TrEMBL record:
<dbReference type="InterPro" id="IPR050411">
    <property type="entry name" value="AlphaKG_dependent_hydroxylases"/>
</dbReference>
<dbReference type="InterPro" id="IPR042098">
    <property type="entry name" value="TauD-like_sf"/>
</dbReference>
<keyword id="KW-0408">Iron</keyword>
<dbReference type="GO" id="GO:0016491">
    <property type="term" value="F:oxidoreductase activity"/>
</dbReference>
<keyword id="KW-0560">Oxidoreductase</keyword>
<dbReference type="Pfam" id="PF02668">
    <property type="entry name" value="TauD"/>
</dbReference>
<feature type="domain" description="TauD/TfdA-like">
    <location>
        <begin position="27"/>
        <end position="243"/>
    </location>
</feature>
<dbReference type="GO" id="GO:0017000">
    <property type="term" value="P:antibiotic biosynthetic process"/>
</dbReference>
<keyword id="KW-0045">Antibiotic biosynthesis</keyword>
<protein>
    <recommendedName>
        <fullName>TauD/TfdA-like domain-containing protein</fullName>
    </recommendedName>
</protein>
<dbReference type="InterPro" id="IPR003819">
    <property type="entry name" value="TauD/TfdA-like"/>
</dbReference>
Amino acid sequence: MARNPDSVLSCVDMNGDVLADGVLRYAFRQLLGNNGYVHVVNVPESFDHVEFLKEMGEFQPTPTGTVVGDVKPERGMDDVNHGQNRGGLTPHTEGYEFHGLPPRYLGLWCVNPPAGQGGETTIFDGNRVLTEFTDDERVHLRDTAYRWGSTEGLARHGVRPTAEHPVLEEHDGETIFRFSTNYLVVPDGDDVARRVIDRGNELFAERHIAVRYRRHDLLVWDNWRMLHSRNAFEDPERHLKRVQIAA
């Protein structure tokens, strides 16, 4: 587990003065493009997370229809794989189980950080996984349509989406990398897809970045590039806000 200071952005300078909006946005874009994610810290009480993120693109509704969603433990969900519980999550990207393009960016900001251990959002650059695959293997991952399922938690809410997508897709000259530890259905004999999952999980476990939240912290990442998960935690008061931002 690591922390990458190169992608941490403070809202205040060395003198304790709040950065000018234009300076903050410029640095934010640079870090997001270079590293695939940004962790914004020392965020003042007056900071408007929603207005800041709106300039990145249109918000997409979450699977349950909310546009600005709450990420906090939901009663009766600790026994299934679900974002709204206290359990750990396995590495994945967002939106693979729905038709169309997945969200380009995900944004989380902290309303109430968890007390005690755990609760970090963990992320890893998917490009590091893809470098282990040959050109022919990448063509296979682009040309093969796989079936993708969804979590048990969503099913309890009556949401049971499935879709067919390749693992890799090109859109406007950029690569979309879809990844799921549990819900990519690998056909018999497809060793390339199986190795994507296995190596993705191995590399994630060895080299992921763990983001520990303080109140008002903002975390944004490129969902077409980065894998993410979450460490388990105990505190039922952990509360984040969440948005999905379209391409």
